[in-house]
Amino acid sequence: MAQQTLLSPAELAYLHSSLSLSPPIRPDGRTSKQFRPLTAETGILPGTNGSARVCLADGTEAIVGVKAEIEKTADPLGDDGERYREYVKSASGVGGGDADEDRREARGEWLEMTVEIPGLRDDDAGTVFLAELLREALLADGELAKKLWINRRFHWRLYLDVSAQ
């Protein structure tokens, strides 16, 4: 189970009053625009295409591993070449155009993310929600999906594994 910090009524009152001031006063002396010190390093996991570890000053640590593989893109129009040519004609307005550009769409299933937190099961609502929240944030502007697109036949599939300590 996740560790929770229990505060007394006096501690809660102090935190509320000090953080409500203008400018707020934090218990550790940081200003409202200062981040906690952190360290980050990359390339720490040998069996991945990319990895990183981020350590915060309070002892919190997160490790992320990324694996990528090429997958065949499912053709939403089927394998019928004639239907594809008709699609290209209608999409471009004439008889040509860049078919790959016309068919490019963000596909959420190209990115699979799992979050692991010690003491919680993989199917715990909190970890599943956090994984989905992070996945949606990565796909929100569509830029990542564009980078996953190779051509009309293939795309990259990313597997992101996040472990918090």
TrEMBL record:
One GO CC annotation: nucleolus
Exoribonuclease phosphorolytic domain location: 34-81
Primary localization: cytoplasm
Annotated SUPFAM superfamilies: Ribosomal protein S5 domain 2-like
Keywords: Cytoplasm, Exosome
Localization annotation: Cytoplasm; Nucleus, Nucleolus
GO biological process: exonucleolytic trimming to generate mature 3'-end of 5.8S rRNA from tricistronic rRNA transcript (SSU-rRNA, 5.8S rRNA, LSU-rRNA); nuclear mRNA surveillance; nuclear polyadenylation-dependent rRNA catabolic process; rRNA catabolic process; TRAMP-dependent tRNA surveillance pathway; U1 snRNA 3'-end processing; U4 snRNA 3'-end processing; U5 snRNA 3'-end processing
GO molecular function: mRNA 3'-UTR AU-rich region binding
Record family assignment: Belongs to the RNase PH family.
Protein name: Ribosomal RNA-processing protein 42
Biological source species: Trichoderma parareesei (Filamentous fungus)
